[in-house]
Amino acid sequence: MEAEVEIEKVKKSFGPIKALKEVSLTIRKNEFFSLLGPSGCGKTTLLRIIAGLEFPDEGVVRLGGRVVNDVPPHKRGVGLVFQGTAVFPHMTVYDNIAFGLKMRGYKKDEIDEKIHKMLEIMNMPFEIYAKKRVDQLSGGERQRVEIARSLIIEPNVLLLDEPLGPLDLKIRQKMQIELKRLQKRVGTTFIYVTHDQGEALTMSDRIAVMQRGEVQQVGTPEEIYLRPANRFVAEFIGETNLIEGRVSGDNTFAADGLRSVILSSSSNPENIMGDAVLSIRPEKILVGDESAGLVNRFEGVVEEKIYMGAYAVLKVSIDDKMALTVQVQPAEKVNGIRVGQRIQVGWSPEDATVVKPT
Amino acid sequence: MSEKILEKIRHRRKAQLLLILSLPLAFYIIYFLIPFIAAVGVSVGLILPREVQLQRGEVITLRYYMDAINPIFLKVLGKSLYIAVATTVLCLVLGYPLAYYVAFKGGRYRNVLILLVIVPFWVTFLLRAYAMLSLLSPEGVLNSFLINTGIISKPLFLIYNENAVLLGMVYGYLPFTVLPLYASLEKISRVYVEAAKVLGASPVRAFLHVTLPLSKPGLVAGTLLTFIPSAGEFIIPEFLGGPNEFFVGNMIYSAFIEAQNWNWGASIATIYIAIVIAGIMLYLKYVGEELRI
Amino acid sequence: MRRLGDRILLAYTIMLFVFLYTPIVSMALVSFNSGRGILKWESFTLEWYTKALSNEKILNALFNSAWVAVTVTLLAIAMALLAAIAVGRYQFRFKLALNTGLFLAIVVPEIVEALTLMLFFLWIGSPFGASTVIIGHLVWFPIVYVVIRARMAGMPRVYEEAARVLGANELQTFFKITLPLLLPGIITGGLLIFTWSWDSFIKTQFTRGPGFETLPIYIWNSVGARGRGLSPEVNAIATLSLIISIALAYLYTRFRGR
Fold first, then answer.
1. How far apart are CA B3 and CA A59, in angstroms?
2. What does the pLDDT read at residue C204?
3. Where would you tag: which of A95, A260, B44, C28 has the fewest CB atoms within 10 A of its CB?
4. CATH 3.40.50.150 given to domain A240-355
5. Mind telling me which residue stretches traverse the membrane in this protein (chain C) (predicted)?
């Protein structure tokens, strides 16, 4: 796979704040790559460094193999869609999209033709939208104009900084699918910054999870969800049960006052020994008769029962030592279960993952 | 490599900043700061006049201040501050209900009302002082109207006294008070007042505990915008005051222009500026607001 | 009860507007009165206007006021823009000092500013005339700065950054993005300093040379202290100036909301 963007040991501080502590990443051509992490993790800073809006204190940035550290933003040929929106409020849709082309000296009829095509891709008929003022557009339309404006200059990389943040949930979900489709269609490399793990999982080919200026894990959505590299990733991506304890040589995991948990060979990809954290996804835990025959089986007390529509959530306490969150689907399965009742819970060894404690 | 580039960028930004800032900064320093400092210099005998300095053999002296601080000056200063404070208080008391009405009760006439508030603010101060004069003077519109309708037979002497000056000041500065008051009242969301009422506050209490405190920035700005210029007022006393209505502004003027005594003029101007700035600082400290732009 | 309160407030508001407008309206009325004095209303006439507008001195003062105000406005906008960009877009140590300093130039009473400036011109031996008047008015450029700065503070950085990424260099970004977005602030600030310059009496009086008259100076000189020289001709020219001010005030309300 050819590399489109290479980040090599990049560091960046703002005064006393270390925004990036030696980050290295390689983003391949034509992939949909997400930078995922809580606010303040450095993802936006990294994006701005790639765009040339910030300059790294140390390290190298390559775009298409070329070192671009000293290239100003207007000569990098990347697209950037901003958090919130940065559609120019004093221009029409047409002028917004034409801006990059005008800067590159295109002629009027070329610009016209390209905008026609681009608006078609964006599902915004030229006749209706071209002359509209920005304040006449909805949030979703503005976002599309901004994406169109960035794509029309045919960048090798399109950087998107939480572009769907301000939109309503429904439109956001629709736009997620549209964006993914668009990316496949135009074949541009997308680097997508988000703090929404669901969004990253849905859209990305690969994800880099970041925290406190460091990359915690890079992988496909499946890898990151099912095999988190550390406690932070396990906790940040989806819901999970975390149990602190120790891994012994015989592939078992022991937590204080509990019977040992059996691990499978795939549960411990990094071969961690000693102190560790066990992560089990709530939907991987089975209850009642369904748990019969599982090697990791415990008895506990139902403390809470929450109806969520498509599924139900049980909070189960095991000997007051450990509280497990269990997701049961469909929700009707918990109809017979009462709060306070004793219940069996269990999971198969390969459904749990051992991660480093920090 | 990165460090070199960062260094280059930093240099570039610095050069740009220098280029951008040099013109306004130089202008500001040369034509505002230096004259100001020079005037303070003159007040302590520096700079002007040179011959006197050499004769005297001393470079800095406080004797112009000693000379300036005499009973007459103190009386004029007291009177000026009194008029300025009175003007400010009257403008606030008179202007607040007006600003309140325009901000909250204007309804569909609001835009017209706003324009009515703004227009006097934009009309030359000198012109409005002149208008007041042409209304109130013995040969003015009011007197001729009253004589023509037979209400009086001889013109009333409405001007050339302290009350006329105060009236003229209030008339002149009222727009300076109302505009910032209106601007801050306009920003207050009615939701707060409604919340207070829902929580059981009477309209009066809702006003006292919600609207009034929230309009504090407007009150502060209105106070400053009125007090600062009225403390140095020069035109109104010249137009509407009698020979006894003589304020610091007029005194500085006559020291400089009529007596041509710059040391004297500069020293009273310095004292006066110091008092005004100290007053502003104390006031801002008292109301707990920052000096901000 | 509430209705009554509103009514009292309305009556009060009307009273205050009457107070604010009676003098200027009566001044304007006198300018249309054909009586020689201002003692008695006779009939409507434009005589005073034709008289005023054929008066060489008045025309000269009008012309001076206009070109000084226009020059001051343009130069003040340029300087205010530069200062606003420096403060808004660059990092430097004495930023706060600069901000406070510029604020000072607005709050110092006009008479003090005017006299210290006059002293300064005398000191450096600069000849008094139109240029000293313009410099004097330009010392007010911080008022434009304040308005533009406020506009800039409310303007997200992203527009400029977006333009950069889309391929515009720094100058193109400034002219195509920053300047148009600041325009409402530039116009309101410009209108403010235009009026300040147009209205300036004290500063002009102390920085002008003999023979250089603007409209306020003309009015002052012909009225004289304590109103000895009230005349309908002055009323006419004052009313004209009033109309210009009202037009500017109207423009200001238009742009303030934008």
1. 9
2. 92
3. A260
4. no
5. 9-32, 66-90, 102-124, 130-148, 179-198, 234-253
Calculate mean pLDDT across residues C62-76.
94
Percentage of residues of chain B with pLDDT beyond 70:
93
Domain boundaries, chain A: 3-226, 240-355
| Tens-place pLDDT, residues C74-111 | 999 999 999 999 998 888 888 888 888 888 887 787 88
- For residue A145 the two structure tokens come to 């104009």
Residues of chain A whose pLDDT is less than 70?
Answer: 1
ipTM: 0.84
**Across the interface, which of C165, C177, C183 has its CB nearest the CB of A73?**
C165
Chain B interface, mutation test: which of C113, C116, C237, most B Cβ atoms within 10 Å? C116
C-alpha–C-alpha distance, residues A161 and A100, integer Å? 19
Could you list the residue range(s) of the whole structural domain that residue C123 is in?
47-256
Averaged pLDDT for residues C29-37: 70
Chain A residue numbers with beta carbons less than 8 Å from the beta carbon of B2 are 55-60, 69
Record: fold of B72-287: MetI-like fold (1.10.3720)
Phi then psi dihedrals of residue A206, to 5 deg: -140, 155
CA distance C173 to C159: 9
- Say yes or no: B27 contacts chain C, CB-CB below 8 A: yes
CATH assignment of A3-226, given 3.30.565.10, 3.30.1050.10, 3.40.190.10, 3.40.50.300? 3.40.50.300
Residues whose CB is less than 8 angstroms from the CB of residue C5 and which lie 6 or more positions away in sequence, other chains included: B203
Query: Which residue from C minimizes the CA distance to A148?
Result: C166
Residues in a beta bridge with A63? A5, A66
pLDDT at C40: 61
Residues in chain B where the model's pLDDT stays below 70: 1-2, 47-59, 289-293
Contact B133 C225 (CB under 8 A): no
Residues A252, A192: Cα–Cα separation, whole Å: 39
CB-based burial label for B153 (10 Å; 0-12, 13-18, 19+):
exposed
- C165-212 tens-digit pLDDT: 999 998 999 999 999 999 988 988 898 898 889 888 889 988 998 889
| Domain count within chain C | 1
| Residue C159 to residue A53, Cβ atoms within 8 A | no
- What's the gap between Cα C42 and its chain centre? 35
| CATH number of C74's domain | 1.10.3720.10
Question: Which regions of chain A does DSSP assign to beta strands (E)?
Answer: 3-14, 17-28, 32-36, 58-63, 66-67, 78-81, 157-161, 189-194, 206-211, 214-219, 241-248, 252-254, 261-262, 274-280, 286-287, 296-307, 312-318, 322-328, 342-347, 352-355
Q: Is the pTM of this model over 0.90?
A: no
Residue linked to tokens 């104009």: A145
